[in-house]
Amino acid sequence: RFSIDLVESTSEGARSALHFNPRIDEKIVVRNSYDGSWADEERDVPFFPFLEGTKFTLRLLVTDDEFDINMNGKDFIHFHHRMPFNDMYYLALNEDAEYYDVDIQNEKVGYLYLTTNVLPTNLGICQKIPGSLRPGRWIFVHGTAKKDPNKFEINLQCNDTLNYDETDIALHLNPRFSEEVTVRNHLVDGSWGDEEQDQPFFPFEAEDTFNIAINVQSDKFKVYANGRHYIDFDHRIDIGKICHIMLDGDANFFEPEFN
């Protein structure tokens, strides 16, 4: 579960005009306010728009009478003001979600726009790459390493699966935190090729955000980490066979982007 709050200050126990708390295990969304103690909860919803591993877009319109909340382009719920919303100066985003865009518009009538991912803790993500992968294209992967991470994987692969026995992999990127090395390899018919481990630096840290950009060239993948050229990996199989990206391991990933 996670929560989004409009609060008066950053101090503990600050008043909250809106506490928005989706609980994925119960498939409910609790709304409430806090003024020294919690008031009456509201739980009724027309549908439940939050699923593990899927992106959601929340739009919050502040009117004179209520908060109007829209989810993924659909009217969702309305929460009548219980205290003056003009006293709320902070937005608190808490627990179990990765937020990657917050936009606040219009000073008099607030329009809050959140785009965010709620990501599973133990399940990998396999997503289709739009269009064909060809020289000149870019793939962008953003994420945050978990606390005490061991490793995570980014695969450019030839099938829609999380099972290594069911796909060939053109590029396997595997940062390993204990060794501070990123292993690169490919997989064909269940057999791994020769590993590559040379690198100029190790760009990943526990609980730190990372940005990876993969440029597809005619003869290789050129990989950038946090804006710096990191490593190259020569093509070992036909890049035309690549159709999916798989993300797994000890990181919370944002939705990958393609150019």
From TrEMBL:
Q: Which InterPro entries match?
A: ConA-like_dom_sf, Galectin-like, Galectin_CRD
According to the UniProt entry, its GO molecular function terms are: carbohydrate binding
Q: Which CDD domains match?
A: GLECT (cd00070)
Transmembrane portions of the chain: none
Which keywords fit this entry according to its UniProt record?
Lectin
Q: Which residues form the Galectin domain?
A: 1-105, 125-259
Q: Which branch of life, at top level?
A: Eukaryota
What protein name is recorded for this chain? Galectin
Source organism per entry reads Lottia gigantea
